[in-house]
Amino acid sequence: MRTSRQILFGPLTRNAGLIACGTPLIVLWQLCEALVPVMIGVTIDVGVETGDLGPFLLSCLAIAVIFTFLSYGYRFGATFMNRAVQLESHRIRLEVAGQAVLPADDPKLAGEWLSLATADADKVSLLVRQFGFTVASVVTVGATAVYLARTDVTLALVILFGVPITVGITQLVSPVVARRTEREQAAIARVAGLGGDLVAGLRPIKGIGAEDAASGRYRASSRAARASSIVTARSWGYMTGLTTVVSGLFLAVVAWLAGSKAMEGDLTLGELVAIVGLTQFLAEPIALLGALTAQFAASTASARRLHTALASPVLILDGPDRLPAGVPRELRLRRATTSSLTEVDLTCGPGQLVAVVCDRPASADSLIGLLDGSVRPDGGAVTIAGVDLRSLAAADRRATLLVVPHEASPPEGTIRTAIDPDGTLDPATLDEVLTASAGHDVVAAHPDGLDHAVRSGGSSLSGGQRQRLTLARSLAVAPPVLVLRDPTTAIDAVTEQQIATGLQSRLGRDTATLVVTTSPTLLAAADHVVWIREGRVVRVAPHHVLQEDPRYREEVLR
Amino acid sequence: MRAHDPQRELLPIASGRDTARLLVRRFRRRPAVAALAITAFLLTGAAGIVAPRALGAIVDRVQAGGDSGDLTVPVLAIVVAAAVGAVAAAAAVAALAQATIPVLADLREDVLDRSLHLDSGQLEKAGTGDVMARVGDDVRTVTDSLDEAVPLLLTSLTAIVFTAGGLFALDWRLGLAGALAVPGYVTALRWYLPRSGPVYRAERVAQGERAEALMSTLEHAPTIRAFAREAPALGEIDRTSVNARELALRTFWVLMRYGARMNRAEAIGVVIVLTAGFVLVREDVVTVGAATAAALYFHRLFNPIGGVLFVFDDVQSAGASLTRLAGVALLPEHDDRAEALGAPARLELRGVGHEWEPGTPVLHGVDLVVEPGERVAVVGASGAGKSTVAAIAAGLASPTSGRTFLSGRAVDELGSATVRRHVAVVSQEVHVFTGSLRENLSLAAPQADDEALLAALEVVGARRWVTSLPEGLDTRVGSFGHALTSAQAQQLALARVVLLDPPYVVLDEATAEAGSSGARDLEVAASQIVRGRTALVVAHRLTQAQSADRVVVMDHGRIVEQGTHDELVATGGRYATLWHAWSGT
Ligand SMILES: Nc1ncnc2c1ncn2[C@@H]1O[C@H](COP(=O)(O)OP(=O)(O)OP(=O)(O)O)[C@@H](O)[C@H]1O
Ligand SMILES: [Mg+2]
Fold it and tell me: Ligand 1 centroid to B454 CA: how many Å?
């Protein structure tokens, strides 16, 4: 697992090429900036003062050349750096998104991930740009000192050591800036998380007219973030203030030293002017270095937040075992035990439709969890073709087992892409799948038919239409083992009957279908029903046989 | 990689003028801090000018052959200016934050508030990402721009005034020479403004699409995982993020070309000033010293002038975001006053027709009356239009034809607050809000105390499991925290209705989401809720219809049968078919 330091410096190592091109250009720009006043002095000396047109024109030409270098240096240097910044922020964004779709032990709200993938990703990648400017500033300070060393070694040393000390002092506040920035970013992520959650719950909110209450809740959270932002800004203010005063004092010391030396005759007037000019110019890199270190602190804070998110444990559903060829893909629970299931045995072979009735929702949740990998058995095992799911290779798991969550909903696209996102189904299969899921009605209900636009989460469809499209999608995948959880809760009895018939009609095939349900219609269609009561299997038999037991009737009858 | 890219109808974007007006209004609310910030930045700018002057004085004194005692005053001036500048800078940054951050936080809150009050269809059409990008990316862009632009503008303007003043004070002809650089700067600006606006706006829209791609993946992560669609979902994020990135690179390139044009103006300006010096010195009109000073003054103008011109970049960038924030924040405020509907709670739909998408009618001339205290069940095939009727009866959607009446008053003439106060809906979509159980419940009644909350839970049969949780009402639920079963989640939704205590209730499949055993508990809860209220109950679970006073059967957007359960079963029509399929008889 990467450390937050690696997250922070990754952008630099990964973009070495762009940085190697950009940094020298930025340095060139800064040096040229420093050269402009020097060149103005030269022009005055050789042209204006002498009144010679030739040297004057020549030095004007030199100014034009310096400006050309300066301009192109910045333009391309900054563009290289910006390119690296944008590439990195995009890369981090995708990494965050990749992490966010993994099943996590400690899930975050969508809005919080969004904030990590945008605000924090941007802050960390800015380090690349900071790097370029830092190098340029340091080089300029060094060059200035070297230039001055020709005139006066003491002053050169003062500058050489003074600048780091000055910048060092401004560092006193940067931990405060970092801490506060981190808190601010966290508060902003919370606001985003809450906002996303409220917008996602819009329909229930509207149902009870709770828009104002919801908006009030967002307001409260936004106010907390706002207070945090103001506190952070204040620490940036301290930083700016400290930089100003320290670089001012540094300037005063140099001015005093140089002034005294000049008065004692150790420096000529011209040298004094040069020194004063350069020291003044140094105020710029010093302030820049101060600000850069604070920005570095902010980047560090974001890197820490990203690290926490990217390092949060995820359920890795992968193992060394491959499914043996030629062995039927039979799903089997052997004495599977969890907090709400006790020694459950269950078998569902290819071509079978097996239903499971649980008296308690917790047992059904647990069973689904065992199959989708989010719950580990305390005892016993779940196997497909004899291979334990826990040690099954991820690729085989994906190719073999589809556990459809109850809350699954169609993605944005069309009815067709909701069923067949890759466009690989032939028309006959599509028709078959639609028949089995009673989906022809859904297509017929819309004038555009299969090309009817579906909004994200299927919000432009009726509840039952959403469920039928999800079912159609599951059947279209046609996995060797298909697990459905209450697939018809939003569907009327007549349509449900069509679906039961549809599921039955597909039985001749190789799919092993397990349905967790209490709907008598689906139960009646199953080959047999596994009846679980208080976490234990009571009996396995066809629905009509079980119906003779009054307790069973009590559980499944409407 | 997506076969179909639907035309998203983004939320409104305000005009520049409306945005400016909104901002002026908002900033006027905090005149004191705003004034403090401006003064402090001006002071910072002024303090920044002391050092160059003091250094000049040192040179003068050395030239005049003074002793080291002469250095005291200018050196002290530098120290004092540094101290004053430091305090002013710290105060200015703090005051600016105090002035701007609350305004932006207010904007973000208003954007979310207006979005929540929008018609849910409109919001769903725009996508969650559109709202999230506005309250996230856009607010961030504006904050960053203001942090940069305000200090830059104020300190630059101070420096320009003092330095340019100094230039003219030297000699008016040298001053005029400096002024000849102005057209160069103006040209740069005129090149930049028309080019940057559109790219910045496009970049913001692209960021919105990126947020939408991220949000729709993150919100539906379990489904995506189950169907192993991670790769295409991440591909969509990749596509939108690359798109936003390319636009960001483009805006930066435009900015760099603008910078190059500014450099050109600077170079031309310097050469003009030097040439003027050259000529004027040759003509003996000015001294070499004055010519030198003029060139150096002009050089010192580079940064502040550049600063002012770069402020236009911030204005363009922030402006693109601000119009998006203002577009939503400026939507009309909802009326908050709920009036009492005196008359008995009678619900009436008269000739109601509805089209969600223009040209696709899903309801045709629906007439339906629910008498005060009556419980009417609506049943029918999936997609028949039951939820649409429920939404219209509850005033959540306005029918495209026909009218709805509550207690004899037309719904379209009542304020939405009044309608919402009287009609509660439990919708087919279950959502557990992330937070504590208490927060989930108190959405319906922010004022309610724990006793009231527990009493409401009692009515829906949820008190026992809630109080048996170790943290009771403080238990955290939702995306993370204690996982609730669907039945428990719906119990919370029903408890919210109890807390709201409305005369009308509309239950749209409120009991469906749990298996039979769970649903039976919910059915008990539901009948508790509808007791004594005028109720419209949409249900596939026909036990709900059986116990209703009247059953309405819908098919293809029309009411096709009406009567009591027994009558309809006896008639042997559509309902009878449904009933037999349901009860397995
Ligand atoms: N928000 C919406 N935007 C666009 N079309 C919609 C929207 N809601 C429903 N529809 C369409 O209107 C028709 C009727 O849907 P409605 O939700 O009223 O059906 P329903 O009777 O409640 O079905 P179900 O039993 O499946 O919930 C459907 O064809 C559906 O696609
Ligand atoms: Mg419905």
Answer: 35
